[in-house]
Fold each of these.
Amino acid sequence: MIRMFHVYKNYPNKIQALRDINIHIKKGEFVFLVGPTGAGKSTFLKLIYRGIVPTKGQVIVDGINIARLKSGYIPYLRRNIGIVFQDFKLLYNRTVYENVSFGLKAIGATNFEIRQQVNKVLNLVGLEHKRKIKPHLLSGGEQQKLCIARAIANEPLILLTDEPTGNLDPYTSWEIMKLLFHINIRGTTIIMASHDKLMIDKAKKRVVRLERGRIIEDTQRGTY
Amino acid sequence: MIFENMGFYFREALLSFKRSTLMSMATILSITTILIIVGVFLLISTNSSLFLKNIESQLEIIVYLEDNISQAEINNLKSNIASIDGIKEVKFVSKEEAYQRLLKDLGEQKDILSAIEKNPLPSSLEIQVKDPKVIEQIANRITEFKKVEEVEYGREIAEKLLNFTYVFRRAGMLVLALLVFASILIISNIIKITVYARRNEIEIMSLSGATSWFIKWPFIIEGFLQGFISSLFSIIILYNFYIFAVDKVHQAIPFLPLVVDNMDLLPIGIAIVLLGSLVGILGSMFSVGKYINV
């Protein structure tokens, strides 16, 4: 699903965010991306949805070389990728329902499809009874669930999550994790950047450790 | 694709108006203010241009004729002059008419004329030209005709006036260009702020896989509406203010030529609408572009 060959990423201020990254993530895998702040986790995720292009090397996502992708095709790549941000990036002047339908409308889904999908994912994350309220009335965990609902609404092949449990208490974090496992079991490849030792040790999934832009460890059923 | 979604784009644009009423109102107010300033200048420059034209059109050539000229010769001369390029009107003023005018001009002092037995004034042709710039050239040609005693056209005044109007118009054009440039910058910056306030929305759409035009259209429509509505407001305000001002000026200086015909004011209205709408459209288009593909 995702392959990287000798990927380097340098930012304009001469910082080497990633150095010689080689990785293969198969379809349906669940991968934790761990490492200290500044290790390159966010850069790694950005490369996959083509928020940035590599300075050197190849990034292949679902058979597409993202460095060669013309800007007009980026939207179509992104329709296969759901993204969950640590800072939520919700639209606070729209309702829960509208936050999810917004992304679907953006990719040209019909009203019927939108209604069906939004109801389905809100049910999945357990927010169906709060569809009409605005996100600022939701708890932190609920807001994160809403982000997940939005990210999976168009059934993407890949789900990228950047520290989704970073601001949550352990109980709520575990709830979010269970939700992500559930989504993973249905076939979605998930890459999750995280600092959450407790969750990672408990989950027993593949762990990729980044440090100063390099992969220093890659273990199946790893720990933090 | 574009037209399929037009309904959605319009709905989104209007919804955004509704969601951020205060912001939209502030935007419209600011753009309206800028457009009013541009409009005031356009009104002033249109009126000064009319004023200058009016003065220029008062420049005329007077051809004094010899006393022994016959009616046939007058007609002949008249048609010869009329056939010169750039002549607007040729009017014959007889000796008698000239005398009557003089009497009228003298008014109370007309007794002076009683000392003179015979009418001393020559008959003349009063010639108006289409373009005051060629007045000298035409005057020189007329001098060559027979039975012409003297040709007069206020050479120095004409030259000074033409010089002045030339400089004045050029200066006006320069100021107008600067003003339009400044207003484009200001309006597009105002639009930029409204787009900046919604950069999250743009980012989310972009990451959801919306095409850039899908993201841009609602903003373009919103920018257009903001510019268009502002231009209508400024036109309404300007028009009422102008009618009022014209009335006041005419009370004070009745003979001052002012543009009052709505058809003559129309180009100013069109210019304001174009400026508001186009800058609204382009401003939002470029501002949105900056936040796409984060």
Amino acid sequence: MAHGPATMADGWIKYASRWLFTTNHKDIGTLYLWFSFAMFILGGAFAMIIRAELFQPGMQLINPEFFNQMTTMHGLVMVFGAIMPAFVGLANWLIPMMIGAPDMALPRMNNLSFWILPFAFAILVSTLFMEGGGPNFGWTFYAPLSTTYAPDTVNYFIFGVHIMGASSIMGSINIIATVMNMRAPGMTYMKMPLFVWTWVITAFLLVAVMPVLAGAVTMMLMDINFGTSFFNAAGGGDPVLFQHVFWFFGHPEVYIIILPAFGVVSQIIPTFSRKPLFGYSSMVYATASIAFMSFIVWAHHMFTVGMPIAGELYFMYATLLIAVPTGVKVFNWITTMYKGSLTFETPMLFSIAFVILFTFGGFTGLMLSIAAADMQYHDTYFVVAHFHYVMVAGAVFSGTAAVYYWLPKWCGKMYNETMGKVQFWIAFIGFNITFMPQHFLGLAGMPRRYADYGLQFADWNMLSSVGAFMYGAAQILFLFNVVRTITHGKPVEDPQVWEGAEGLEWTLPTPAPYHTFETPPEVK
Amino acid sequence: MLKRAQALFLRRLGAVLALVAVGGVSAENATRQLNMPQGVTEVSQAAYDIHMIMMWICTVIGVAVFGFMFYVMYAHRKSRGAVAENFHENIVVELLWTIVPAIILVVMAIPATTALLKVYDTEDADIDIKVTGYQWKWQYEYLGEGVKFMSELRTSQDEIYGREPKGEHYLREVTEPLVIPAGKKVRFLITGNDVIHSWWVPDFGVKRDAIPGLFTSAWAKTDQVGTYVGECAELCGKDHAFMPVVVEVKEQAEYDQWLAAKKQEAAAYASTIGKQWTSDELMAKGEEVYNRSCAGCHMQNGQGIPGVFPALKDSAIALGPVEEHLRIVVDGVNGTAMQSFADQLSEVDLAAVVHYERNAWGNDVGDITQPVDVLNYKQGQ
């Protein structure tokens, strides 16, 4: 081993330099994970402001202008700042360890792709303190609200999105290059852990659609500053074009968020069922077909823009089809548990909750795909409830599960199981109190992104806010548990950590040394 | 008043906690609606029916899948001595759970297609109404009738900001509702003036985006007389939540009466344009118009929102030559949120609001802008 990592004992300059200039996949993974947690807390704080304002009808705490900035920033920070970097962090930590590689294929680019992210978000969040305020046009930033009618700070937003996109593309190229070139001898594609598979497919999605997002914001930039009319009907453009371009990015984006979560759950459920994953190859094919289909369904987000009926029918049928591979995944997870020997440690609890709540979100997704009914659901709280069931109970629950599952391997210490379980139940109950009533609100007619509402929506909104504060509190407990594990956790010596764990990362010593697999392992 | 607000708050909090405790819905508040409304048109009924079909199919699948899952979680736990088996493949089951869902989806697609065909059936309408979304109000124009008016939120800022108790129809009331006759097929031609809005009346099953530069269409036909409330469903800026839709369905005879009155009103109005107004009259009218149409951005005190919407108090425009002031209010400023008010406000309203802006909040130009001046300005273009 060449040298170990610098610690505080070497002086703070050396210690800070280690993190700034690191090319070590584990260090970069750690940076990504802490950054994403910080963004998660920030985006969560925005959500708390939203729910506090919506606690009662009327405007109490903030004005409608600031409310719109909060909904926009909550969405942007959570999607681009919290969830995506969290899974990139997991990929950095785990992919080399899972395929028996010493590091990522492109370590310097790895460093760059992380370190531009804090700048992107500093630029984005700084707009809140500027004259005119932050972006206030929703995370989907439909033109012309985000062009002609936007505050001047929209240019900072565009710059921020460009940097995030560059970071994601670099991260994805790195993952593709690593998996294609650095697998240990004998680690054929169809032997790779499912987490690696889902990430490779995600990386291809990212490389395909991030440039589309960059194109969309660049067209905005031109419309705002250089007199073009891409999205301005008065100049011969088309406001609906923006939505087509955005959702051509946006729909694959939701799978970018959820596919790695599928991967995580596919690692955890077999471990605590003490039984191999059921239908490994069908899992791989299902993931690939979901990824492919994600490109051909985008306009189901736009059923109310007045498309020709042929368009509506096509996008409805195509969307319905996604239920098939998604169903296969759910059935596989449940059959993995069938005739296993189940225990319910915290990661397993979060994974089971993932399967149940994600499937529930899938059901509402099926309902939303029916164009005639979507005329009623569209842009209401029903949609808000739907995508929080798949994004929060999907991505965030699986991210939490992943941290609890691999934390002992990363730091060589065991978290507090009781605290983990308490956190799980607060999060699970809080989440459902928050978002279940939002289905009713939406069906009863409350549109999303409303700063204020009629008295008939008062009760469910108040209940939803109570749940949101509960769910927020669970995250504080999560942070406390993780920090306490790192500082005071009970040491773990066993390389395998979990009785039923399988895979190369569990053959390494615990905690995982700074450099691993310098000699590739032999996979049989 | 504070006491009253507190009492209301406590009562509501109590209701919510009871809701949590019981886990059900109390009958005390009939507005605590859980499901999609069936509505009063064929389209809303079709949407409701397909919604219910989908919900029941999902419920049945959910109960089966989760039921099996909970059984597994109970029966095959290690603490009950379960020993793991080692199977991990079964071609028959895997094919089965790919093909069966696909068949269910095809079955779902059939009623979904029928319902959608109904939504799109906008042919052969009896009445055409053009609906235009403005930041933050709706304009309704009865095509071929010469009747056109704005429909804005009537709830006061004081109610919204809690300085006054909230009325029964809080955020569900407008200055002038859209009126349509029962039993006639009404087609809505929907567009936007500035940003994208979305015109939604749940009881009609109508939601269509109002897109600047494009038209979308929808239709409604109902026999049920009544008042139906809807909302703007697409984020359209600051007051997105404050531009409700209210539609009144009247019997044909009543509708005819109403339409005739509207036409008369328009004719009567034309005669007030020529009248010489006094400063006081204009100030009173102007304040009313300003607070309704301008205060949303420029604020009631004329100070705007720094960096977003300019102040009018002590502004160069409000204190400068009246032609420039008129130009901005009538024609708007291209590329900004300042829209053209030429079609939104009458000549009287325009004159009054310009006069008000030049003579309120310490602005004291002292000149008088008459409706005739506005008319001359418009004709001079």
